[in-house]
Amino acid sequence: MEKIIVRGGQRLSGTVQVEGAKNAVLPVIAATLLASEGKSIIKNVPPLSDVYTINEVIRHLNTDVEFANGEVTVNASRELFVEAPFEYVRKMRASVLVMGSLLGRTGKARVALPGGCAIGSRPIDQHLKGFEAMGAKVKVGNGFIEAEVDGRLHGAKVYLDFPSVGATENIMMAAVLAEGTTILENVAKEPEIVDLANFLNKMGGNVVGAGTGTIRIEGVDRLYGVEHSIIPDRIEAGTFMVAAAITKGDVLVKGAIPEHLSSLIAKMEEMGVKIIDEGEGVRVIGPDSLKSVDIKTMPHPGFPTDMQSQMMALLLAADGTSVITETVFENRFMHAEEFRRMGAEIKIEGRSVIMDGPTALQGAEVAATDLRAAAALSIAGLVADGYTRVTELKHLDRGYVNFHQKLAALGADIERVNEADETPATEETMIKDA
Ligand SMILES: CC(=O)N[C@H]1[C@@H](OP(=O)(O)OP(=O)(O)OC[C@H]2O[C@@H](n3ccc(=O)[nH]c3=O)[C@H](O)[C@@H]2O)O[C@H](CO)[C@@H](O)[C@@H]1O
Ligand SMILES: C=C(OP(=O)(O)O)C(=O)O
């Protein structure tokens, strides 16, 4: 077990490189199951614990998977097994994304029920509604969801009650090999959906409209392994943008795509942060004092829930009253309690938090409640008085590569140590192959 120790007070400057997007690579690796011929070669893959987990899941389904030097190679040409057990789904909810591919390719899938997690109950009813509309019979029992179709899935019209990212992806993956046309309405428009659609189309699929509210898919008979490079991680980029701004720093976030970050950029600019599109990335220059703003998380292109806790750190440093309203997840304010341990005064009222800033944050021992909270608490530590110790780093490793090293290279006083004796952590102990 390890923790991060940050001493506040350093201004960040320099350049930081963004990795491939966690939330794009997980569905793309799940989609490699659809290729009954050829190898898929996925590039720009970050060495995250979630990537090791999805690789283990698809290996378990009778594929060959190699992961080295940022490239995942998958051969899924053998007959697939159809069961994803609880040991994987428990580690990572996104394991349910293999369900659509398995159903499309084999007509059957058996996946352990994901259950809730620290940010809410996270049901998958919309995924299942899509599979059922395409002809699958869905049964839930003994901790598993089982979906099966006689023959092949058929195209259908599916309206999502909420533009769920995972449901959009899972249904897209099932529909590419279905017979006929599927029309998905009120779908998620996240950049990761577009990346998945691009991958499916390269494989031989016919997906139109990704990135808009309606996606149309003409089913095809067969898909092939192809090469694909994953888009940059907009949430990792946003995390470093906030770190730069809170320290009054000057940082080039290389690889950040401004069009993927428009809501965050708009809000940071309202706060007085200077943001310059430099083509190869985004330069962020923090002002001497930050203005308070209100934030409401929404599906893309609204403000991303995955940036909510980092933004809470930034708003604590801002002058005046700010309100954050979380509309995507029912319970994503667990980190507020940890910020309170650092001296923050935060009122929680239903789905909103109210903060009066600027807060003179104090170093404290805090526990990460999810992966973004791990980053947000470290960021708060960059400006807190004294030492902040962040524990529960298993969450951080799900979504960030070399997080403390990247901050240290920008000038932060930060290290990662063993929890018991505070000796430095080593590469081997940081991320363990699942
Ligand atoms: C691996 C991945 O890409 N994870 C992202 C994905 O998660 P994920 O795909 O799980 O998020 P969804 O968009 O599906 O969930 C959003 C909301 O819809 C609800 N819901 C979802 C599906 C369903 O069938 N029924 C239902 O009620 C969820 O409980 C949640 O309240 O999108 C989230 C919202 O942008 C991000 O925070 C996650 O980082
Ligand atoms: C909530 C997140 O991920 P997941 O859906 O994989 O839990 C996230 O990336 O912030």
From TrEMBL:
It is an enzyme of class 2 (transferase). Its main location: cytoplasm. It comes from the Bacteria. UDP-N-acetyl-alpha-D-glucosamine binds at R93, R122, P123, I124, D125, Q126, D306, V328. It is found in: Cytoplasm. Pfam families: EPSP_synthase. Coiled coil: none annotated. GO terms for cellular component: cytoplasm. Phosphoenolpyruvate binds at K22, N23. The active site is at C117 (proton donor). GO terms for biological process: cell division; cell wall organization; peptidoglycan biosynthetic process; regulation of cell shape; UDP-N-acetylgalactosamine biosynthetic process. Keywords: Cell cycle, Cell division, Cell shape, Cell wall biogenesis/degradation, Cytoplasm, Peptidoglycan synthesis, Pyruvate, Transferase. Pathway: Cell wall biogenesis; peptidoglycan biosynthesis. It catalyses: phosphoenolpyruvate + UDP-N-acetyl-alpha-D-glucosamine = UDP-N-acetyl-3-O-(1-carboxyvinyl)-alpha-D-glucosamine + phosphate. Its EC number is 2.5.1.7. Residues 6-407 form the Enolpyruvate transferase domain. The modification 2-(S-cysteinyl)pyruvic acid O-phosphothioketal is found at C117. One of its GO terms (molecular function) is UDP-N-acetylglucosamine 1-carboxyvinyltransferase activity. PANTHER family: UDP-N-ACETYLGLUCOSAMINE 1-CARBOXYVINYLTRANSFERASE (PTHR43783). Belongs to the EPSP synthase family. MurA subfamily. Cell wall formation. Adds enolpyruvyl to UDP-N-acetylglucosamine. This is UDP-N-acetylglucosamine 1-carboxyvinyltransferase.
